[in-house]
């Protein structure tokens, strides 16, 4: 078998625009797992936010992987064991949150695996992140004061026209400690320096004895570029950003047109 792992981004890739896995895509991924292929969900989402898709694809039955926080955590879907966890040290996290206070138009989103900490639930994308990731919202007077833990990721949210002019401001002074990537027009993500979807897949594959050439990866956004760079065969969805399409080995149909199933049918013996 040429490919032993299928690595999947979630939003805009595995899920259609209604945030669901279509029946055709689900059946295709169940079929390849029955052939012994490992399916890895590789998402910028917080860890609890991968549960729904993991259940839909029966990853627990097939020893799939849940890779969350843009590569910050790797978890075995069958045993629940955390295989890798890379958290931002508390001192750096608090300093970065203080740094973001200079721009009140930006909305920091930070979680402890159970709660999103915010000063106002109506801030940009806070409630969307709460719903998408099965996280409750905790209202605090000051986020930096409240964060007494080591978060795996710190997200900065704002409408695209506000966020993009601030990208250099956001990372200034923290480039040596954090890695940054824009995962959506309204999100800029910070993780421990060197952590990415690429680094997480590298660790997971070494543990499983899978070569990069044996990995097929699907994505749609800028934070998927490192994943496609790692994989032996990189597939950009038809709705992907131009940068991802330019580096992909294949451009498939969109996330609303069963792009994953279309490509899997070409490479695996499935209906």
Can you characterise this structure?
- With 271 residues, the protein is α/β, with parallel strands linked by helices.
- Helix content is 30%, strand content 23%.
- Strands 5-4-3-2-1-12-13-14 form an eight-stranded mixed beta sheet. Strands 8-7-6-9-11-10 form a six-stranded mixed beta sheet, with helices on both faces.
- Helix 1 packs parallel to helix 11 (259-267).
- It starts with a strand and ends with a helix.
- The mean pLDDT is 96.
Q: What is the count of helical runs?
A: 11
Query: What is the average of the pLDDT values?
Result: 96
**Strand line-up of the largest beta sheet:** 5-4-3-2-1-12-13-14
Structural class call reads alpha/beta
Shape: globular
Give the % helix.
Answer: 25-40%
Order of helices and strands: EHEHEEEHEEHEHEHHEEHEHEHEH
Q: Any idea what the radius of gyration is?
A: 18 Å
Q: What share of residues are in beta strands?
A: 15-25%
In a few lines, what is going on in this structure?
The chain contains eleven helices and 14 strands. The protein has helices at 23-34, 51-56, 90-100, 126-132, 143-146, 160-163, 167-171, 197-208, 225-230, 242-247, 259-267; strands at 5-8, 38-42, 65-68, 73-76, 82-85, 107-111, 115-118, 136-139, 154-157, 178-184, 187-192, 215-219, 233-236, 250-251.
